[in-house]
Each structure stands twice: as structure tokens, then as C-alpha cells.
């Protein structure tokens, strides 16, 4: 896929944590707020997660001088194997559903988990997808640190 034709993000990580714990890190406000945003602050009182198909989620990422709200709807919740949800930020047009994020968690034994992350939607430019991928990589570094602390 050429950079100009880019239409999404694909990231695979092997995590040193059991699948159930990784899933919990994605679906519990206290855990999610601790790693989503990487080094940015996500105040726990600004996180809402109704983790069920059709349930809404939202949070606010705070960096010095700026608040960045994100929100979406859970489309599929299959604990502890798979999450599918929509993702929008404040700059997304109101008439689009946003990006679709699919995360699958595969138990690899020895308390390790393969996490496969995909973001699709075609709502971003190639440059925006590249920047978003860098952001997710930083978030997942913070997820690794969070899992190590549990």
C-alpha cells in the first residue's frame, strides 16, 4: 500500500500479560485512562465507558493548554477476545460515524497476549493516519507500562 493510498492503521503487539488483563485494560475506566493518551493526562472523571454493544464511551485527553475529547460507540464486545468500536474526535464532522477500531486479543500461553489493532474508516488523510499511528504506538507503550505495574 502506498502512502498516498493509505486507508487505516495496523499494529500488532505481543504483551507480557494474560489476555483477560489486557482486555480489562481496554474496558475499565481506571486502566484505560492510565494508558490512553500516552504521556497526556486523561482525568478519570472525564472517562465514561458503557462496554456493551451499542454502549457509548468518551474521554478527554488533556495536554498543556488543550483539551481533546474523543468518543464513540461499542459495536462488538466479546470478552476477552475482541472489541470493535467507533472513534471520533472533536474535529470529525457530525454526519460521519468516525473511524472503526477493531482489537483482537489472542492468548499465546505463558501469560502473553497477541494484540492486533486495526483502525479503518477512510476519514483521515495519509498524513493523519501516519500521525495517528505514531500516537497509538505511544499509547501502546504506555499500555505495556500499565500492564507491568498490575
Describe, in plain words, how this protein is organized in 3D:
By secondary structure, the protein is an alpha+beta fold. The protein has a single domain, classed as Alpha-D-Glucose-1,6-Bisphosphate, Chain A, domain 4. It has three helices and seven strands. The chain has helices at residues 19-27, 29-35, 126-149, and strands at 8-15, 48-49, 56-63, 66-78, 82-89, 99-107, 113-120. It has a seven-stranded antiparallel β-sheet, covered by helices on one side. 19% of the residues are buried. The model has no long low-confidence stretch (mean pLDDT 93).
Order of helices and strands: EHHEEEEEEH
**Can you count the beta strands?**
7
Spatial strand arrangement across the major sheet: 1-7-6-5-4-3-2
**Shape call:** globular
Secondary structure: helix percent: 25-40%
Low-confidence runs? none
The profile of the biggest β sheet is: 7 strands, antiparallel
- Total count of domains: 1
CATH superfamily caption? START domain
What is the mean pLDDT? 93
Strand content: 35-45%
| CATH architecture designation | 2-Layer Sandwich
Instruction: Say what the CATH topology is.
Output: Alpha-D-Glucose-1,6-Bisphosphate, Chain A, domain 4
Number of helices: 3
CATH class: Alpha Beta
Distance between the termini: 38 Å
Pairing-aware structural class of the strands and helices? alpha+beta
- Write down the Rg: 15 Å
Amino acid at each position: 500500500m502506498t502512502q498516498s493510498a493509505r486507508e487505516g492503521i495496523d499494529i500488532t503487539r505481543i504483551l507480557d500479560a494474560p489476555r483477560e488483563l489486557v482486555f480489562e485494560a481496554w474496558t475499565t475506566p481506571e486502566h484505560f485512562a492510565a494508558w490512553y493518551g500516552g504521556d497526556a493526562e486523561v482525568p478519570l472523571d472525564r472517562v465514561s465507558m458503557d462496554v456493551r454493544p451499542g454502549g457509548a464511551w468518551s474521554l478527554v485527553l488533556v495536554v498543556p493548554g488543550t483539551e481533546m475529547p474523543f468518543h464513540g460507540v461499542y459495536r462488538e464486545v466479546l470478552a476477552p477476545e475482541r472489541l470493535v468500536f467507533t472513534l471520533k474526535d472533536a474535529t470529525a464532522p457530525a454526519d460521519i460515524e468516525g473511524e472503526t477500531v477493531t482489537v483482537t486479543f489472542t492468548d499465546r500461553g505463558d501469560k502473553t497476549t497477541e494484540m492486533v489493532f486495526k483502525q479503518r474508516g477512510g476519514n483521515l488523510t495519509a498524513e493523519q493516519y501516519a500521525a495517528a499511528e505514531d500516537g497509538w504506538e505511544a499509547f501502546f507503550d504506555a499500555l505495556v507500562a500499565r500492564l507491568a505495574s498490575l
